[in-house]
What we know:
globular, two-stranded antiparallel ribbon, mainly alpha, about 375 residues
Amino acid sequence: MNISALGRCIDQPIILNKLHQKMPALLIGAGAGYGIYDTMKSTKGDNKKLKRQKAVKNLIIIGTTIAASLVGARGLRLKPFSFLGKKINLKEKQLIPALLPSSSMSEVLEKQNKAIDTFLFETQIRNKEVLKALAKARKQPLSVKETDLVLREIPESQSKKKLLDTLLPEAENLDACGIFSEIGRLSLLGAIPVVGGIVGGITADKVTKTETPKSVSNKIKEGFYQYFANIFLCNVGACAALFSAERLQAAKVIKPLTPVQRLVVILSGITATGIVGGSYIANKMSQKIIDPIFNKEKSLSKRHKGVYDERKPELTDIALHADDIATAGVLSGFKWIEPALPFMYFVSGYRAGIGYRNNSQESV
C-alpha cells in the first residue's frame, strides 16, 4: 500500500467535513453512555437518593464539559431560528470563533467541482480510469486505490498541482513558528473543556448540596493536573523538539525530516516534558498555589509534604496521552485527526469535574 496515497486519501476535504459534522452527535452519545455506565457502576448497592445524586452530578458535569468542548471546537454563532412554530429573526453573528473551523459540504463540493472543471479545461486526459475517478470526486471521496491512480497517472504540471491542492492536499509542513501558533490554538482547545468540567463539577456539588472547600479545591487541582500534565506541557515539548530539529537541519547536521520523522520528533518532545515532567510540575503548582488558598493552616507540615502525596501518575494517565499522539499528528500536518481532539480533551474535562484524586483521597 502506498503510504503517501493513504495519508492524502484520509485527509480529503469531503472526509474531514463528514468527520466534523458527525463529531457533536458522537461526543454527546459517548458522554451519555459513559454517564449511565459510571452512575450504575459507582452506586451499585447504594440507596435511591445516592443513585439520584450521582446521576445528577454526572449529567451536569458531562453536559457542561461536552458543551464547552463543542463551543471551543465549533465556536458559537448567532443566527435565525424557529421556536414554537415562530421564526425568530436574528442578525447572523459569530460570537465565539471556532478553533476547529470547517466549511459546509456544499462549499467543499462547489470548490472541488470548480477545481476539476478548471483542470479538465487546461489538461487533456485520455485515461478513462482517471476520468472516472475525477467524476466520482465531484460528489464522493476517493478510495486509496483511486487516490494512488490520480497521483500516479496524471502528468506533472501546474494544473495538476492546483487540482491536488484542492482534492488531495498534502500534509502541511509547519515550521517551528507555525507550530507555535498551532500550539496556542490546541492548548486553548484543551483548556476550554477542562474549565467547563471544573465549572460543571462545582455547579453539580451546589445543586446536590455536597459542596465543601475540599471538593472545590480537588476539582481545581485536577484541572491543573490535566491541563499542565496532559495538554499544555506536552504541546510545549512538541514545539521545543521540532525547533531543535530545525536548528540541526539549518546546521546541516541532519537531513530534512519526512512527515513520519517529524511525528517521531514531536512525540519525543511530548514524552520528555509532558509525560515525564508534567505530573511533577502540576502537583507542585497545586501545592504552592491552590492549597494555600483553600487550606488556611499556616503550618506546611499539616499539608502534603511529598509531590505525589495526593495525585500520582497512573496507567490511565498514560492512556490519556492518546490526545498527545493526536496532537502530534495535527502538528505533523495530518488534518484528519483534528475532529477527534474534542473526544480526547473531554476526558480531561470530566476528570477535572469530578475532582479526581488517587492517593488516599476520594473524588468528590
